[in-house]
Amino acid sequence: MLRLLARAAGVAGAFIAGAVTAHLASIPHLVRLTAKFQRSRTRMIAAHEEERRRLRHSLHDELGPTLASAAMSLDEARIMLVTDPTRVDPLLCEIRDRLAAAVGEVRDLAHGLRPPALDDLGLVGAIKSLAEGACERVDVQFDGDPTNLPAATEVAAYHIVAEALTNVRRHSEACTATVLLSRDTELRLMVADTGKGLRNGHADGAQLRPRGGRGLIAMREWAAEVGGGCTITSRAGGGTVVSARLPLAVPGSIGLRPAKADEHERRGHPRPHHR
User: Fold this and answer.
1) What keyword terms does UniProt attach to this protein (predicted)?
2) Which residue, 141, 156, 198, is CA-closest to 174?
């Protein structure tokens, strides 16, 4: 009995020792993954803050003064109607040109926030328009219902496919490419081409920068922002494969913060009432 207990204790000790060794061996890998995730999140936050600063500059330093100047010119035109009517028409033409430029600025800002093709064509139609000219032939297929996707997931999918097809056009030397999307509990997408593939067959941190610039990194960041993932690999028969999975329940994302109610009221805008 004592010998059996001793053997059992020895086996248990060996098992525990093996489990501890395996756990200790996995720690460096977990540390690297955590550090990689933190770097990716830091880049995303920095990119969003940079985008906020760009929008603030465009609104406050460019669009704002343009509209204020147009308002002042309209007041000037009202006075001229009484004092010198002959000068009103040229001034109104100048105001119209300035307002047309302001409309263009607003349109550019709106396009930067969400690709207009998504609203005009839907995700599938927008991707088909991206595919034109990427290579000789691009097949686009969607398995499932492409409607009513979360806005953030839809934008992430669009940007990942756009970047992948840009790489097909610029770098792959591919004749054909395929874009496959499927929807069940999440949105999955794959962009595969028949080109020369990636250097060393994979796209880890060392391979992302030399040829692809920030584009390959950006695809992973678009996926990570909505809580998904993206991988870029070369396949055995030649060509590059971009695969992404994007959740349909998007967690709280880093987006443009709406103005607070007291900021509206401070600027003379009453708080809206909802029925």
Assistant:
1) ATP-binding, Kinase, Nucleotide-binding, Phosphoprotein, Transferase, Two-component regulatory system
2) 198
